[in-house]
Amino acid sequence: MITAGIDMGSKTVKVVIIRDGEIIGKAKTLAGFEAGGAAEQAFAQALDEAGIAIDDVEAIVATGAGRKNAPYSTRDITEVGGDARGVIRLFPSARTVLDVGAEEGRAIRCTEDGKVLDFALNEKCAAGAGAFTESMSRALEVPVEELGPMSLKSTKSIPMNAQCAVFAESEVVTLVHLKTPKPDIARAVHDAIASRIVSLARKVGYEPDVVLIGGVAHNPGFVDSLERALECKVIIPENPEFIGAYGAALAAAEA
Amino acid sequence: MVEYWRWKEYRWHDESKDWRKGEFITAGVDVGSVSSQALVVVDGELYSFSNMRTGSDSPESARKAMAWALEGTGMTLDDIGFVVGTGYGRVNVPFSNKAITEIACHARGANYMYGSSVRTVLDMGGQDCKVIRCDEKGKVTAFAMNDKCAAGTGRGMEVFADLLAIPIEEVGELSLQVDEEPEPVSSTCVVFAKSEATGLLREGWPKSKVLAAYCSAMAHRIVTLLEQVGIEKEFAITGGIGKNIGVVKRLEDEIGIKALPPTYDTQIAGALGAALFAQNLLKKKLAEASKT
Amino acid sequence: MATKQLYQTRPLECWGKAKAIREQYYRDYATAHERGGLRWAGGAWTFGAIPAGLGDDVWSITSEPYAASIAANKDFSMRCLEATERAGYARDLCSYMRNYWGSVILDEYLWGGEFPKPDFIWQDHICCSHAKWYQVVSDLEGGIPSFCIDVSVGPYETVNERKIDYLVGQMHDGIEWLEKVTGRKYDDEKLIQAVYNECRATAVWADVCTLNKAIPAPLEEKTMYSLYVLGTLMKHSKQVADFYEELRDEVRDRVADRIGAIPNEQCRLMSDTQPPWGFLSLFRYLEKYGAVSVGSLYTFGLIGVWEVKPDGTWGPRTTPQELGIEITDRDQALRILADWNLSKPEWQHFYSPHLKTDMMVRIAREWSLNGVMLHYNRGCEGLSLGIAENRLGLIEAGFPVMTFEGNMGDEREFDLTKTMARVDAFMETLGFKKEG
Amino acid sequence: MFDKLRDWERHRHDYAKDWKDRTGGKVVGYFCTYAPEEIMYAAGVLPVRILGSHEPQDVTEPHIFGMYCPFCRDCLAQGLKGRYDYLDGIMISQSCLHVRQAYTSWEKHIPVDFHYYLPMPAKVQTPRALPYLTGELAEFRKAIEEWTGRTISDKDLDKAIAVYNENRRLMRDIYDFRKNDKPPLTGQEAMEMVISSQMTDKAEHNEELKKILAGLPKRNSGREPGVRLMILGSEDDDIEFVNMVEKCGATFVVDDHCTGSRYFWNGVEPLENRLEAIARRYIDRVPCPSKDWEDRTRVQHIVDLAKAWNVSGAIVIQQKFCDPHELDIPAIRKALQGNGVKTLFLEFDVTVPLGQFKVRVEAFLEMLVEEDLFD
Prior knowledge:
- The complex is a heterotetramer of chains A (255), B (292), C (436) and D (375).
- With 255 residues, chain A is an alpha/beta fold.
- Chain A contains 8 helices and 10 strands.
- Chain D contains 16 helices and 8 strands.
- At the B-C interface, helix 6 of B face helix 3 of C.
């Protein structure tokens, strides 16, 4: 059976097409101001990669913050449900899912059959999310993708106070002016985000295995900080940012 | 990719003046979190300045700014009798003789730029927003600064310029091109305000309306800060956002007081105040030297 | 929206009366002076029965419900909050307090006219802000005589004669103080009647809440707010005690006729702490899932006074009159009043969140709940106290918990859309689907 | 001169562990300075105050909602991280709601042999508080006796009271030296002195204080005092901040903190009933704002300190979300300004952004001193 999942994230739209649980097509586009269009575009690309036509897709489920504006979908599930489903299918041993997206941080505790036992989301402040690293990279004048590797060079931990992503910039600027080595600042930034995510993880009472998904999972510096704070290794799937959409596609296959 | 938040860097000097005739030549260097200015004062008169973006290496930013301010004037650092550093990087101005906070400097600078009747100075800078009350000499009598949240700062506005792909200089003007004032954006967190704005754009709001919603939210936050210290006439605005008519106008409407019209680039107030302080300190230094 | 009809519903008949009593209350306070009466201000928890001894023409305004009414009026509330911030008070203080102060600073009464300045302040103190609240009101109003009774003597299970003496001693001093500041002669008979009324009103309210154990629940929390509020206005008045009896009889009939608060009850929840008053629509949103909030320790135990019945379940505390106790003098009345109030469920968690967890787990079991929705309320440090531990305790006891941050009186700290998204996720995990 | 005290303050845990080894006695951690330490000390128990460590942490989120003050969360974090694993017991004497949560979560999640909640009255201004608290102290004494298996005689209480009163008197004598035009000690040293007193056996602390007192008259701190400042407000043991300010050309000469003068200002006046005497001391002490009502008695006290120690400015700090202080600070600032003392208000978190605070502090000092910046 062929089904699809569309993850309408705040920054990007992800589409995954699966046949009997196996991913046969996937695509990601920037949500921009016209998320619906972005989704159609991503969907077309995914169909392309899968080499099938839209009519071959039997069911489509949407997830993500903007799921109500998703095209094609017949049903929708929440990000929490999508994440849990996707992760458990890939890693049945997973008991805790951490999802760090552009603006959202999520911690989910679930059973071996993907049932959600408890979940926690970041509140009014966007600290502990991808957006944080972006503004920091600007303050440091270091491209986002280099921030991670750079921070790995540091062995020093400096506490950061600011919660607010943008306000934290001035703290970074202060550190810069104090001639703090950039790697140390980069690590401080990752430690700050990690500690917010770990707070969420502790709230749901995380247990191994812990799986990390979402775009920020590509950042080795963040992963390092996270593992240090969690005092355990985390599993990262091949395409961490697609897991929500994958979970939605699985949900589509259920009904 | 175009960086719409990047405002234009530039320099200026008074070609009509021959600095060599000057007695007291002093400079102020304001290394802010977002922008840096170097400024030279000759016998209490503004002579030249540069205005550029702060790099991640502040001593370097200070040197660059200073060098650029002197460019084409024939003046070198050695010609300058006293240098005062201010701003976040004030302690990292390698060639400065003293560091003074931007709070004192902005008050002094505003006093020069707008006259001695100024009692309340609002400095809307890159990372923070300050309200300063001062006396007729430009001496600080009270002040307040925003904490913990970047809403109401230049940085927040830059984030928006980027989001909407509009050059930062045009943001304010555009935000006024609305038939009626929309509800201000509700999020104080700039990141969420950004996604809130994205939502509005997705709903088909024109950019001007979204900007209006953000500018009025920003203006409102600044007003609450102003009210903490209390506004006394005359009222002047310094710093980057002072150039943003969209914020300034809404702010004036809300407090019911017009800000004095800017006579100089509002961003140089800090460096100007520093240079003027430098002149007093130079005179004092020379006086003491002559004693011995 | 097509929701499946599992149960009959019908509006509450005594609803209009509740509304009328409330409106009259705020009018009476504002116009008290015109009728030669007195005005006093104090908290919803204060010993209102005591000033009742000053005469029948003494009217009060209780601060929390007044502030909650302001909060429900978003525009006025925002003006109040900002006026308070302008005056230099921190933004993270109790949002009831900030709305109330704002109304004083602006000198605007929510129901029109200037803010009616109280003649004296009669407060009690268990949360750090209680007495300080009125210290500031007194600053703002240019000095108002005030008297606060400290009730923080520890949980009811530890109450002994000495602790009662501490409260009653303050009450006696308070009565002398009342006579001094009002120049009136104190009438013990009126006090005694007020104490009888308070015990009756608060026990009967507990009785009403007990009836909500029924499936379908005859009342949903959004409605209960508008009913329990009368107890926060004047729990010591005959009017409120009588009304609660009338209400109880009607709710009994609803249970007998299996009248539900919502037509499609399939999921029973409870909340905790005051809701974000400007956004009660959140409860309507629950109904899309056939979810009904049957109450909370807040709606049950802030006014209701309870006890464990012989069969081990929770029910209304037996009143002195039911026990055949005849109150004959001031001291006896005050002792009963002190003991009665110290057993109030909402006072126990001030000493340990674990006491509150036990009560919440009891409600979750006896009211047959599927889950719990905890409002992490930035507006109230008193009722949010220990809420994170309550969450852990409820989960340990096997009840799924959803938390959401908000503020009962400051809309800037509540996000309805994000909260509804949480409800979606919670309902999904509980296995309930949205209808229509 | 203050090295020993600084060492005790820095290595408080080592001190307590060592004390246990030396004496074989029990150590009780207390959460607020309303704890009647004399009673514990009389039973041979060492009371130590539980304070935070000013490190960012992520362990308290499941236990304390983020709207409560950073201090109470920092305190609980110490317990959850096992830093106080040597404690035999914990106790709290009812003060603010915030720190109460650190106690109740600690009691639930960190095993201790003894824990006690003392419902210290909140209305210290009513005469009814004395008999009530005296009774509560009798119960507390009983609980300590049962736990330690040692009866507390009046003689034991007298000894404890004597040691504590001496500690209070000595610290006040040292505070008096801060009135000098050139104070022989810095605000940092004063803070380290008081905090170390909360962490150590007062008998040993007293010996150290006597040495210091003997040396102070001759001591030349070798630094220009600069602007004379007062610091006051919420719980504050942020030595790093005090140090930063004193490096900007200022000296703290007096304070109103529970980690400072408020802790030791008044002593126990002897009474036939020792517990009543102790009760009176805690009822009459300079109050925490959470107990300062209906009248605000603390405001005048603060103004008096500012005058007696001749300060030109006051830094008013508040732990983020510290409601009791938030409710007094506007009145206090008004009173100080009214008496010609300018104030700078700062909101503290577990760690403070020194960079951002430095600007405010320096600008504040620039405001207070007549520089030759103007014609």
